[in-house]
Amino acid sequence: MPAAELLEEYSNDKEYECEEVVSGVSTRKSAIFNAKGDTIFLIVGIGQHPKQYYLWSRFVIEEILIDEEGDFLYHAFGQGWLLAPPKYLNSSSFNEFKSYCGNFGFGLIPINGSPYLKTLKHFSELNKPRRPKINFRKYVDEFYKQVIRINPSEEERLFE
């Protein structure tokens, strides 16, 4: 499910079982089929000057769907969790990792050769949700507050 649809679907004040808020990624890379069973660490970039990076979720790919309308798009889903809260990544070791990943210009890439993998595993375990339910609307609201605390100039851009 694309992010916009996910936000719309969970935009009410209802609480959902954490497993109901599916973790997933979409890509045009058919190499995703070779990643079934692999762990995905979803890092999102938000904002400008400076762009902020957050570790958003961690999951194991269990299912891959093909969207054949228009360009081929592959959707990978699996069991995992959204970090609560998403972990702000701001360190020299993260910058080295970002460089290792081609500044995230390549999209989905294997990172098993990166020393930063241990850090991602640690952060994802540390920020694993402690409650079985999540109010996704409040989750996103809290995330936006965190983004604005770090860079107040983002407020106008986020809520245009």
Task: Note down, in words, how this protein is organized.
It is a single chain. The chain has 160 residues and is α+β, with helices and mostly antiparallel strands. It has one domain. Helix content is 29%, strand content 31%. It has 5 helices and 6 strands. It has a 4-stranded antiparallel β-sheet with strand order 2-5-4-3. A two-stranded antiparallel sheet has the order 1-6. A hairpin with a 5-residue loop joins strand 3 (39-46) and strand 4 (52-67). The longest helix is centred in the last third of the chain and has 15 residues, at 136-150. 15% of the residues are buried.
Question: How does the SSE layout of this entry go?
Answer:
Layout: H1 3-9, E1 16-17, E2 23-27, E3 39-46, E4 52-67, E5 73-88, H2 92-100, H3 117-126, E6 133-134, H4 136-150, H5 154-158
Antiparallel strand pairs: 1-6, 2-5, 3-4, 4-5
Order of helices and strands: HEEEEEHHEHH
What is the assembly state of the chains in this entry?
single chain
- Major sheet characteristics: 4 strands, antiparallel
Poorly predicted parts = none
Strand content: 25-35%
Shape: globular
Q: Helical stretch count?
A: 5
Separation of the first and last Cα atoms: 24 Å
Strand adjacency order, main sheet = 2-5-4-3
- The percent range for helix content is 25-40%
- Helix/strand-derived category reads alpha+beta
